[in-house]
Structure formats: structure tokens, C-alpha cells
Write a structure and sequence with these properties.
Blueprint (H helix, E strand, L loop, with lengths): L7 E6 L2 H12 L3 E7 L30 E6 L5 H11 L4 E8 L2 E6 L8 E4 L5 H9 L3 E6 L9
Antiparallel strand pairs: 1-6, 1-7, 2-3, 2-4, 4-5, 5-6
Helix pairs in contact: 1-2
């Protein structure tokens, strides 16, 4: 797991679109999202692209085979267009998603939202919201990340 995550929770996700939309909206503003996978069906306008593919924090998670990779600004007006493209591509084609805000990784969904590879910063969604997401079946469960769990870069 990326050391920049700091304190995190491990999420077992049932409804990927609902969770991702909530997290994107919670983190929008001075944030960026990276997508890695088969992005051929995603069309991101030039207003969304950043000058650099990778940043100091948002880097490719897969070295081989080399997958498509993009970093996009996550601002109030960009959440819906980005989410629309992700849904159009499908979660099976987008292997890794990371979101950084204010210079810290706050969300990571690796290996197609594998149950042991979805992590979130403690301050993104409070525990009562996570409990609500379990009750609404967006999440199967959540808990603290143990050092041996999660994705390694």
C-alpha cells in the first residue's frame, strides 16, 4: 500500500459506482484522480487533462503490461463527466483508481476493487457514513487496514 495513505480503512465494496461517486464528491477540490487500465472507451476533454501523466503521488501501479494511465483534476465541475466516462468504460476495464487531495492519497481501489485492495483515508467518509453504506448495501463491510493487507506499489 502506498505509504502516503496514512491511517486507512479497508472497504469491501458491493456497489462500485455509488461508492466511487460518493468518494469523488467528498474529495473534489484541490484533488486529482488517476485511472489505469484499458481507457480506450473513455473520452476526456482537454479541459480535464493535466500536463503530466504521472505525478509525485499518482503513479502507475502496473509495470507490465503497460496499461493506459491518466491523471485528471477532481473539481466540482469535473466529477460527473469523469464518472460518466468511468461508467462507460466499465469497472472491468479500469484496473486501478487513486485519488489524492491536498498532497495525500485518500482513496485507492486496486485490482478491479478487489476486497483486500480498496482503501480510504479516515477523513474521507466518517464511520457513520460507512455504516450507512453497509446498511444500503453499497459496502459489504469495512474495517482498519492491517499492515499486510492492501495493494503494494
Amino acid at each position: 500500500m502506498n505509504a502516503e495513505l496514512g491511517p486507512t480503512r479497508l472497504l469491501n465494496v458491493r456497489d462500485k459506482p455509488d461508492l466511487l461517486g460518493r468518494v469523488m464528491r467528498a474529495l473534489q477540490g484541490n484533488a486529482h484522480i488517476s485511472l489505469e487500465g484499458n481507457l480506450k472507451r473513455c473520452v476526456f476533454g482537454p479541459e480535464l487533462r493535466t500536463p503530466s501523466s504521472e505525478t509525485d503521488l499518482l503513479k502507475r501501479s502496473t509495470e507490465w503490461p503497460k496499461l493506459d494511465f491518466v491523471v485528471l483534476p477532481l473539481e466540482e465541475g469535473s466529477v460527473d463527466p469523469i464518472l460518466k466516462q468511468i461508467l462507460q468504460a466499465g469497472f472491468h476495464d479500469i484496473i486501478h483508481i487513486q485519488i489524492e487531495k491536498d498532497g495525500r492519497i485518500q482513496f485507492g481501489a486496486y485490482d478491479n476493487f478487489h476486497p483486500e485492495c480498496v482503501v480510504i483515508g479516515d477523513m474521507v467518509l466518517p464511520e457513520d457514513v460507512l455504516q450507512e453504506l453497509v446498511a444500503k448495501h453499497t459496502l459489504r463491510s469495512f474495517g482498519p487496514v492491517r499492515k499486510t493487507e492492501g495493494h503494494t506499489n
